Amino acid sequence: MKITIEERINKVGDKKTIRLVYWNGSYTDKDGKLKHHRKREQLKQYLYADPKTKTEINHNKETLELVKLIKAKREVAAASGQHGFTDINKKTTNFYVFFNKVMESKKSNESNKNYDLWQAVLIHLKRHYPDENLTFEHITVDWVKGVKKYFDTQAKTKTGNPISSGTASSYFNKVRAVINEAYAKEIITNNPLKEVSGIKPITTPRVYLDMEEVRALVKTDCRYDILKEAFLFSCLTGLRWSDINKLDWSEISEFNGTNRITFNQKKTTGLQYLDIPPQAFNLLKGLDRKGRVFQSLRYNSYMNVELLRWAMAAGITKHVTFHAGRHTFAVSLITQGVDIYTLSKLMGHSEIKTTQIYADIIDSVRKDAMHKIPDIGL
User: Fold this and answer.
1) Under a CB-based contact definition with an 8 Å cutoff, are residues 211 and 306 in contact?
2) Pick from 272, 344, 270: nearest CA to 109
3) Which residues does 319 contact at the CB level (< 8 Å), separation at least 6?
4) What would be the CATH architecture of the domain defined by 93-195?
5) Is the C-alpha dihedral spanning 127, 129, 131, 134 positive or negative?
6) What is the pLDDT of residue 376?
C-alpha cells in the first residue's frame, strides 16, 4: 500500500488542510476507465498557504514534520493490518480468483459434493458484478448487502423465473463461505458478515400426486411419449430430471434378479445404487440399449407446457412440474409406511432433515401414528 500527503487550499485561500490518502491498487470499470482504490484520512493540521512571518514559516515546518511522523505511523499500522488494511498483496487479491480456488477445493473434497452449485453462484455473481478485477478492497458491508439483495429479489433461473428462497439462501451461503475463508486467511481483517445476516429460506408447499392421479396420467395421452415415460419413471423411482435426462444404459445392470441403476447424482455427485421396480423398467424402451435411455428428452418451455396440458387433460388441477414426480415418489413411500432413513437413502439425500419435509406433509401418517398408542385401560 502507498500513503501520500495531500494539501487542499481552503475557500478563503489563506490556509491549507492536510489529509492522508491511502492508495490500494486500481481496476478498470465497465467503461474501460482506470479507477483507483483509495480512501482518505483528514488530519487536524493546517499550513499557511503563503507564510510570510517567521512564526508562520516555523509553524509550517513543524506541522510538516508532524504530518510525516503520522504518515510513517500509519504505514506501519497498515502493514500490520490495522485500520482495515492488510499487506497490499493480500488486500488486492482478486475476489473471483480466490472464489475459484475455494470452489475447486470443494470439488476435490468428498464431504462437499455441490460443485455445480458453486459454479452457478459464480455465474450469478458475475452477472451482478461483472468487473473481473474485483478485489477484496471492494468487499464491504454495502457490497455484501447488495449481493444479498440480488439473490433475494433479482436473480433469475435459466427460464427467467425468480430463484426460490431456498436457492437464494444456498447461493448466498456460498458467498459467505468465501468471505469467511478470506477472513480466516487474513486477506481481510474486518469481516463484513458481522453486519449482514443470511437469507432465511421460506418453506414452500411440495406439489405431489396421489396414486389415483398418477393412474389417470397413465391412461391419458401426452403429446410427447418420451415426456410421459420420463415423468412416470420419476414417479416410480424418485429420480430428478437431471439424473433421468443423463441416464445411460451403461448405468443399468442386473443384480440379484432385478434391474439396478448405479450412477452419480447430477446435483450432488454422490454415487447411488437404485433398484428399478418392474413397472418402471417397462417404461424403458431403448431397443439397442446403448447411449442415453431417454434420448429425445429435452428441457424447454414446450415440454413444460405440455406437462401441464397433459396433467389438465387427466383432470389434475395442480401446478405440475417435472420435480413433482420426485415428490410423488417420496410421499407415496411415506404413505406406505417406509421409514425416513430408508427413504433418505432412496432419494439420495445427504441429510435426514431434507427427507423429513415429506413426512411433515402427510396428515394421514401422523393420524395413524397417534392411533397406535397402546390401550392403557381408560
Assistant:
1) no
2) 270
3) 207, 308
4) Orthogonal Bundle (1.10)
5) negative
6) 66
Residue (of 331, 329, 309, 330) closest to 320 by Cα position: 309
Regarding the domain delimited by 211-370, which CATH topology (the fold level of the hierarchy) does it fall under? hpI Integrase; Chain A (1.10.443)
Q: How far apart are CA 355 and CA 321, in angstroms?
A: 19
Residue ranges covered by each domain of the chain: 2-83, 93-195, 211-370
The 10 Å CB-count burial string (b at 16+, else e) for 317-328 is: eeebbbebbbbb
Q: Cβ distance 362 to 334 under 8 Å?
A: yes
Pair 136, 188: CB distance under 8 Å? yes
Q: What is the pTM of this model?
A: 0.54
d(CA 249, CA 232): 18
Q: What Å distances lie between residue 194 and 35, 176, 198, 330, CA to CA?
A: 28, 11, 10, 39
Strands 34-48 and 15-28, how do they pair? antiparallel
Q: What is the pLDDT of residues 82-102, one digit of tens each?
A: 444 444 446 678 899 999 988
Question: Fold identical between 93-195 and 211-370?
Answer: no
Residue 248: strand, helix, or coil: strand
- Pick from 328, 316, 322, 317: nearest CA to 358: 328
Report yes or no: 159 and 301 within 8 Å, Cβ to Cβ. yes
